[in-house]
Amino acid sequence: MIRSILNQLILDDKFIFQGSLEELKLKVNESNSNLYELEYIGDNELKSSLSWSLYTKTFPAIEGTASLNEIDNKSVEIHLKTDPRPELLFILLLFLGFFLGFLFYGEWPPFWFYLLFPITLIWFWGIIRIQEKFLFKKVKQYLTS
Question: What is the pLDDT of residues 11-34, one digit of tens each?
């Protein structure tokens, strides 16, 4: 059950780069977009991140990793993936703390509290997901062009 919840929080995409691993490395090293950054973090692993974000001044930037699997000398499978965002966990813990505080003082939370939690969680998850999809789309467009 926990794995299925985490899978909803992670964006996962695969595509094929037409060229060798060396050609991919050259293309990554030549990338100079103002929208995102691409860099190698290992022999068969890339990191991509947005150069801007809507609200990530206090949290890590929107980023993803890509594992590279050379199929043959003419193509490379690229598997893009994100990690769960810490701000979603922060929101969950914040609301849990408020809820336990209400119970500790013998009061039930007001009705709006029950609405605020899912709306806030869905709002931030939606903003994050839109930015992650934008990043993956731009990286995919660049590497397949």
Answer: 889 999 999 998 999 899 888 888
Residues 46, 66 contacting (CB under 8 angstroms): yes
Lookup: tokens for 87: 């701000």
Contact 81, 64 (CB under 8 A): yes
Our separate counts of H helices and E strands in the chain read: 4, 5
- Section 125-138 average pLDDT: 89
Beta bridge partners of 14: 79
Q: Is the pLDDT of residue 109 over 60?
A: yes
Type of residue numbered 47: K
**E strand or H helix at 66:** strand 63-72
Q: Using CA of residue 73, residue 139, residue 69, residue 43, what is the dihedral sign? A: positive
- Residue carrying structure tokens 């050259």: 26
Q: Tell me the whole-structure pTM to 2 decimals.
A: 0.81
Contact by Cβ (8 Å): 62, 53: yes
